[in-house]
Design a protein that fits this description.
single chain, 2 domains, three-stranded antiparallel β-sheet, globular, protease, EC 3.4.13.9, PepQ_N, metalloprotease
Amino acid sequence: MSATLYQLQRDHIQALNHAYQARMAAHNLDSLAIYSGHANNHFADDHATSFQSYGHFIHWVGMADVQHSWLVIQPHQRPQLYLYAPADFWHLPTQLPEEPWVAEFDVHLCSDKITPPLTGRAAVIGDLKELANTTPLANVATLHPEGLVRELDELRMVKSAYEVACLREANRLAIAGHQAANAAFIGASAELDVQLAYLGASRQRESDVPYQNIIGLNEHAGVLHYQRYDLSAPKRRYSLLVDAGRRFRGYCADITRTYAGPDAPSEFGELISAMHGLKDELITQIVPGIEFLTLHEQMHRGLADILVSHGLYQGSAESAVETGVTRAFCPHGLGHSLGIQVHDVAGLRQPDGSPSPAPDTHPALRLTRTLQAGMVITIEPGLYFIPMLLAPLRKKPHPIDWTLVDRLAVCGGIRIEDNILVTEGGPENLTL
């Protein structure tokens, strides 16, 4: 870790302390405890599920795997970190790195699971329902007050310089994985082999990925959250879609690339190039003050142009949007907020915490905010050949070239995704 990143992290923690103190004063709080969370065992087993710490805990500590620990914030005091670190020969206890940012906390190593010490008017936030007994906390504190949590969610929408540096590094590591995944595809690997190549090059184990990697060959590229890996390579290689990320100090990269295989119709490679162009054009429109819904609607207009120019739709681009044809070819939203969580918090709320749900015409949209400098978002237009979504269109007289659609269906679909920082001077693509 560079000296510059050390200082950025210390500045980030100090700014968080000031921000939390202000919000606690507004809520008349003397203590705020943040629970890290913990993993749960599989049913009737002693083997735990994969785990990531509670987001607001990571916001301070920058570690995504801390369990059974507490961070206590009190006015005019240093943050108190109660780190669960039992003596254990079955598992390696949690350890804080020997880095300068640790000095911003008073650290207490706890051999037992504790109830955090709270004074005065107190609140506790985190995944409290997983605690075995919340009665001691409920007797002295307000548990997970929604208004305060919404304000802390909002605090995460605009990223500090430290957070941007972490997201940039997460992207750098993920890009190495994507390059290795494409090389494995060229080498005629199976989906599992592509996944293993990605993990090796991005230097992570599967339990550490920020979300389950989507590695889809051929028709599987048209399953939006495809969750399996074939063990054998297909006889024909039409396409590969890789939607895979990486964490760095708790912050997530979320990148998607689609590749045409040697057996793909020539039109598929042309469509991939067109979708890259659409993604790049949408990124140029990202400025503070623009509505994300506006960008999403521009994506559908651009997708309609692609459908028309490549002969998939033989009517006007306007009619492709108005009749819902583009929504059948791309059923998901343009992107989402990105940070500690892949689909980060507060994307469907206004700055004052009031709900801002996705419109009925675009129910899968995960971000409805007005963009402002410091936000990090994804831009991920898609074009898919999903039989269940296209089937209703076949029953109506839409001017769709179904022969071409059926020829491309073996490729599944296309998704291209980059991670973008909104700045006053224009968009900064963290994925390049």
